[in-house]
Amino acid sequence: MTPGMTTRTLGPYFAFETGGPEPGWRTLGALFGDVPWTARRVADVADVLGTGDLRVAASIWQLGMAARLWSPVVGALVAEGVLLDLDPGRVWWRPVASGPLPLRIPAPAVRPGTSAADVADVMGGLLDPLAALTGRVARLAPGLLRGNAASALAGAVRTVAAARPDLAPAALDLGRRLLGHGTLRGTGTFTGGSFVRRSCCLYYRVPGGGTCGDCPLTGRPVTRA
């Protein structure tokens, strides 16, 4: 089976295209160094949310990006037992007005090993520069950014479990193992199938907003915009 084939059936956040770059496509590595583009995108998110607080918008943008990067990796690990190789230099993307960021790789490739350390090595090459880029656009606490990465992981795990109940035990086990390793250690916990993080993404500061389902703050759970 071609790596990533099963993940496409789990939803748009889990899908990626294969093939070479075309006009308008750039590498993730280039994105991670593009502060002006990111600042404009965060400003767009702020407009959609109806907030003038760029810290809130930057946090929500980073969380969404982290979810996009986690999802195909989690899907391939749980559904196919392989660790996708998503090196920022060989993963291409193109800007879209809304929805999941389109991703493209020349051909599906896998990394050896599927341990928490192996996964952390792959994802660290994606999430660490993403966090650094976000921090250059808006001043956000490192713990908040790590919490967003954990929340994005938990969201991918829950999506797999909901779409494929037969894979739910493996998905939840993967989530628990990854949350106990490296920079994600201490960011949150799974209790049954529910995840609660230890930091806040700041969505409660959005006008008319509230707390998210995994928030440690008390309040009315809502779905993020």
Largest sheet: 4 strands, mixed
Approximate helicity band: 40-55%
Mean pLDDT: 89
Strand content range? 5-15%
Q: Segments where pLDDT lies below 50 for 5+ residues?
A: 219-225
Quick structural summary:
This protein has 225 residues and is an alpha/beta fold.
Structure description:
The protein has helices at residues 28-32, 35-49, 54-80, 116-137, 142-163, 168-179, and strands at 17-18, 26-27, 83-84, 92-93, 103-105, 110-111, 188-191, 194-197, 211-212, 221-222. A four-stranded mixed beta sheet has the order 1-5-4-2. A two-stranded antiparallel ribbon has the order 3-6. Residues 219-225 have low confidence and may be disordered. The protein has six helices and ten strands; from the N terminus they run E-E-H-H-H-E-E-E-E-H-H-H-E-E-E-E.
Q: Tags for this entry?
A:
disordered C terminus; 4-stranded mixed β-sheet; 10 strands; two-stranded antiparallel sheet; alpha/beta
Give me the secondary-structure topology.
Elements: E1 17-18, E2 26-27, H1 28-32, H2 35-49, H3 54-80, E3 83-84, E4 92-93, E5 103-105, E6 110-111, H4 116-137, H5 142-163, H6 168-179, E7 188-191, E8 194-197, E9 211-212, E10 221-222
Parallel strand pairs: 1-5, 9-10
Antiparallel strand pairs: 2-4, 3-6, 4-5, 7-8
